[in-house]
């Protein structure tokens, strides 16, 4: 993974590169420059991070009963229920922070699907903002992990902004997004998880620019939405 220099704390960035994670975020932290955030840990058990490892037969997509589930096909960026679930999950978080709602973009969703099909935790080379997750069972669980984690909303400090999935998801000038998922027998970059979903969302205009963070992320220090906002399978 190639990483361009950031204007934020190099110590914080170096530390982030050394941590194993199952969720990644694209960041754009120096004026006009987009970088990969690097590897970061999400505090979930291995069973959750590798959801379905023991339960899913090889080459078989699981049947999930949750209304907000991953039980869609690979071209679901065209599915209205899929779109509405992503819109609801993103925009209820943005509303909580007083941020304008996003609209769905099928071009971004198609681009996200193309990248998800690569079954990798590496980011795409395009200019869009991008969040990636692996192993979650539902759309709400994906967004929950992008928002409520120790290194997401809990760590947010407007005086010392470090870009994350959380900041991209809330970025005020981002107006459009599209998401996709792919069932992957194995994931490039993850050696211990097989037969799991890779989830990708792409955002335009991209967020996470260091000189625009304070005006684009309307959150106070450590401010998180209630867990009850999300419908979770665990």
Automatic annotation (TrEMBL):
PANTHER family: CYSTEINE-RICH SECRETORY PROTEIN-RELATED. The keyword Signal applies. It comes from Austropuccinia psidii MF-1. Pfam families: CAP (PF00188). Keywords: Signal. Residues 1-32 form the signal peptide. This is SCP domain-containing protein. Residues 81-211 form the SCP domain.
